From TrEMBL:
This protein's name: Thioredoxin reductase
Organism from which the protein derives: Candidatus Taenaricola geysiri
Subunit structure: Homodimer.
Keyword Flavoprotein: yes
Cofactor section: FAD
Length: 305
């Protein structure tokens, strides 16, 4: 069983930032990632509100820069999913999907979140056949086609604007009578002639045969080729739900130092309960979580200064 100082679960902006800080602290740190480094950040077309990039930067480029920095600072990245976590005798045992186990003195949960599904008729059936949760990934498949975007926050608006670069028509269905997105994004969407908002409306069904042919929005049938759903996120906290306190939605509850209810487990980023889910706040969380984990491990080793 490999022994490490700190195991970081997730290589999104929070996990990678944790790796930077822990690596600089000269702790043996391993970041586990089941998909790609960067998480949801990596599939964002363009990020304009991260400090230091006045012209913006693609999510993929920012992810690669953070990954390179974490590795340069000494963190190791292992592409494997952590499927189990136990806490016997004041140590942590992490089990990976391939069956290998790792022993750690502390754990930073930075597993992020996944898109929330609406569970309307046809949604599950047509995933990959017209239903998508990532415009950046799938927009080129809808060139000169009609799509429906569901949501009114920053992500939904950004993705609708991106889709409009490819699609001939974009409908934006939002349950309220105004957008929740940042004003500058809302202004861009409302100025885009290819995008038509459908206010105070709810997606109630998705129809099709081999692929999506229409969507039902508050009783109105809209002929379309795709439906993009941005209805929020679900925290990826499954492996720690039996070990730490979580809220009703599954977000991990922490204090201001990112301590959870279990000593030695810290949480940061989208997986924890907070009011603003952004790349910059994930990085801030992670810096605090990493320093807290550092002090915790150094105290256990008797090397704290």
């Amino acid at each position: 069983m490999d022994k490490i100082d700190v195991a970081v679960v997730g290589a999104g902006p929070a996990g990678l930032t944790s790796g930077i800080y822990l690596g600089r602290a000269r702790l043996k740190t391993v970041i586990f990632e089941k998909a790609i480094a960067g998480g949801q950040m990596a599939i964002s077309e363009w990020i304009e509100n991260y400090p230091g990039f006045s012209e913006g930067i693609s999510g993929q480029d920012l992810s690669m820069k953070m990954r390179e920095q974490a590795v340069k600072c000494g963190a190791e990245i292992i592409e494997d999913e952590i499927t189990g976590l136990k806490n016997p005798d004041n140590i942590f045992i992490l089990k990976a999907s391939g069956g290998k186990e790792y022993q750690a003195m502390a754990v930073v949960i930075a597993a992020g979140a996944v898109p929330r599904k609406m569970n309307v008729p046809g949604e599950e059936e047509f995933v990959g056949r017209g239903v998508s949760y990532c415009a950046t990934c799938d927009a080129p498949l809808f060139k000169e086609k009609t799509v429906v975007v569901v949501g009114g926050g920053d992500t939904a608006v950004q993705e609708a604007i991106f889709l409009a670069k490819y699609a001939k028509k974009v409908y934006l269905a939002h349950r309220r009578d105004r957008l929740r997105a940042t004003k500058i994004l809302a202004e861009r969407l409302l100025a885009n002639k290819k995008i038509e908002p459908i206010w105070s409306s709810v997606l109630t069904g998705i129809n099709g045969d081999k692929k999506v042919t229409s969507a039902v929005v508050s009783g109105r049938k809209i002929e379309c080729d795709g439906v993009f759903i941005f209805a929020g996120i679900v925290p990826s906290s499954r492996i720690v739900k039996e070990l730490v306190d979580v809220d009703e939605a599954g977000h991990i509850i922490t204090d201001e130092n990112m301590n959870t209810s279990r000593k030695g487990i810290f949480a940061c980023g989208d997986v924890r309960k907070k009011s603003l889910w952004q790349v910059v706040t994930a990085c801030g969380d992670a810096a605090v979580a990493a320093v807290s984990a550092q002090y915790y491990v150094e105290n256990l080793k008797g090397t704290a200064y």
